Amino acid sequence: MELSLESMFSPSGLLGNASYVLLILSMAMRNMFWLRILAVFSGITGIIYDAFILHDPVGTFWESCFTLVNLVQWAWLNRERRALKLNQDELNIKHRFFENVTDIELKQLFNCSEFITLNIGENLTVQGKKVENLFMLTQGNVTISYNGNIVSQCSAGDLIGEIGFLTQSAASATATAATVCKAIKFNHQQISVLLKSSPDLTITLNNIINKGLAEKLVRQNESNHAMQSSKI
User: Fold this and answer.
1) Taking all residues of the chain, what is their mean pLDDT, rounded to a whole number?
2) 3-class DSSP state for residue 129?
3) Nearest Cα residue to 175 out of 113, 217, 123, 104
4) Strand, helix or coil at 86?
């Protein structure tokens, strides 16, 4: 092809330009899914241009390799997205308790968790014993007792064992199911492995725990204030 401004904007030249425009757009994408899609279309356009316009076997070969790599990566990414799709029960929990957490992050957390049912009288944590799991109540009520005295109560949406879970220390109180409860049980060892590979997920989990602690503190302050007011 002749090197001129006219040839650059000829129909065949525009095809070559389109390949590079698509490549630049793909590099500008922050979403990996769309980056791969645009890269694949850039490669296909490049193959057509190199094979049928330039008749360049070297360019055609490398454009084909580029397209194949991005196509395989797109297929793998698409498979991962399907595997991380939330089922209906998980979606219901997300809408109730994890509205600001992305589906992918939440699915990763759920993959390191277990959905359990607790009967009345079953303990989630025991005072003085090491906390191995973090619990989030999704249904029912749990009493919190210290030295045998009930000091607080947790309900759906509350986390149980978060301090011991974070510090890997003994539980400061005993948490006992006061009703039939449903909860999500997060295993410390499994979550630790996951968090090491995902800084974003670490921030997400810390935000959830910090929010739970703040809500408990507010409730405790309100309870203390009500008790003091009743003594006046």
Assistant:
1) 83
2) coil
3) 123
4) coil
Q: Scanning the structure block, which residue is given the tokens 């302050």? A: 221
What average pLDDT does range 57-81 have in this prediction?
A: 90
Q: What sign does the CA torsion over 215, 101, 184, 95 have?
A: positive
pTM recorded for the entire structure: 0.58
Q: What does the alpha-carbon distance between residue 137 and residue 135 come to, in Å, rounded to a whole number?
A: 6
Nearest one of 143, 139, 137 to 123, comparing CA atoms = 143
| Burial (Cβ within 10 Å: 0-12, 13-18, ≥19) of residue 181 | buried
Q: Which CATH number fits domain 88-231: 3.30.310.260, 3.40.190.10, 3.40.50.300, 2.60.120.10?
A: 2.60.120.10
Q: For position 32, what pLDDT does the model report?
A: 83
Q: Provide the residue ranges of all domains of the chain, joining segments of one domain with +.
A: 5-83, 88-231
- Residues with Cβ within 8 Å of residue 205, at least 6 apart in sequence: 109, 191, 195
